Amino acid sequence: IAERLASGPLRGKRIIVTSGPTHEPIDPVRYIANRSSGAQGAAVARALSALGAEVVFITGPATVSPPDGVEVVPVQTAREMQAAVDAALPADAGVFAAAVADWRVASASDRKLKKTKDGLPALEFAENPDILREVARRTKNRPALVVGFAAETNDVVEYATAKRSRKGCDWIVANDVSPETGIMGGRENAVVLITENGAEHWPRMPKEQVAARLAEAISQSLSTSEP
Ligand code: CTP
Ligand code: CA
């Protein structure tokens, strides 16, 4: 690792990457989750590390393994992920590829829920913190470059552009996850990079190549924003 950190355009840059789903407990044995594999986030972390960055990889329970050569911080819930991100700051850039659960169960039971004759359990939800938005709108310790992801259907560019302003991040990496694209859960991705200059459509390519191209763009951006 030391050898790799010693070279590459991102040497000396510290970058936080969030990845994977989060698991929100219902009780000690049950949880609410989503289908994120963590593949795109792991690929981005690997690509940034390959360019020499010091990567803090904060990951929910993903199906793919984290890359070698990065600092791995495993978490379960959105709130744990947020605490891990806060603890990892300051950083030069943050890439928020995690599929964070929007809601958690408001009062998760510390005992396993049992079937009863009195009816069905009712789950009440609470909204999770928006980790990306929180970091992007920080006045202290805001990374120079904050990158979010957005999986959308239909008007992808319009939704992602609105999401960029709402969150206050610099870039949004958007993709169309309509069933007919076959993107969701696949090996390839077709993304649109939304920046202050508008929308840049990238051709469909393997997730590793999307990651490599994004890492290059991040490297460019951090070198031009240098004091
Ligand atoms: N994100 C986050 N914390 C959350 C929700 C989302 O950090 N609680 C980040 C994701 O990692 C991603 C970006 O915000 O980089 C966009 O996530 P998305 O789910 O598309 O945004 P939401 O604001 O949750 O909007 P939607 O209602 O479309 O799910
Ligand atoms: Ca969401």
UniProtKB/TrEMBL annotation:
It catalyses: (R)-4'-phosphopantothenate + L-cysteine + CTP = N-[(R)-4-phosphopantothenoyl]-L-cysteine + CMP + diphosphate + H(+); N-[(R)-4-phosphopantothenoyl]-L-cysteine + H(+) = (R)-4'-phosphopantetheine + CO2. Residues 15-227 are annotated as: Phosphopantothenate--cysteine ligase. GO terms for molecular function: phosphopantothenate--cysteine ligase activity; phosphopantothenoylcysteine decarboxylase activity. It comes from the Bacteria. Its EC number is 4.1.1.36, 6.3.2.5. Pathway: Cofactor biosynthesis; coenzyme A biosynthesis; CoA from (R)-pantothenate: step 3/5; Cofactor biosynthesis; coenzyme A biosynthesis; CoA from (R)-pantothenate: step 2/5. Binds 1 FMN per subunit. Keywords: Decarboxylase, Flavoprotein, FMN, Ligase, Lyase, Magnesium, Metal-binding, Multifunctional enzyme. CTP binds at residues 102, 112, 129-132, 149, 163, 167. Residues 10-220 form the DNA/pantothenate metabolism flavoprotein C-terminal domain. The keyword Lyase applies. The keyword Ligase applies. Its cofactor is Mg(2+); FMN. Catalyzes two sequential steps in the biosynthesis of coenzyme A. In the first step cysteine is conjugated to 4'-phosphopantothenate to form 4-phosphopantothenoylcysteine. In the second step the latter compound is decarboxylated to form 4'-phosphopantotheine. Catalyzes two steps in the biosynthesis of coenzyme A. In the first step cysteine is conjugated to 4'-phosphopantothenate to form 4-phosphopantothenoylcysteine, in the latter compound is decarboxylated to form 4'-phosphopantotheine. In the C-terminal section; belongs to the PPC synthetase family. This is Coenzyme A biosynthesis bifunctional protein CoaBC. It comes from Tritonibacter scottomollicae (Epibacterium scottomollicae). The lineage of its organism: Bacteria, Pseudomonadati, Pseudomonadota, Alphaproteobacteria, Rhodobacterales.
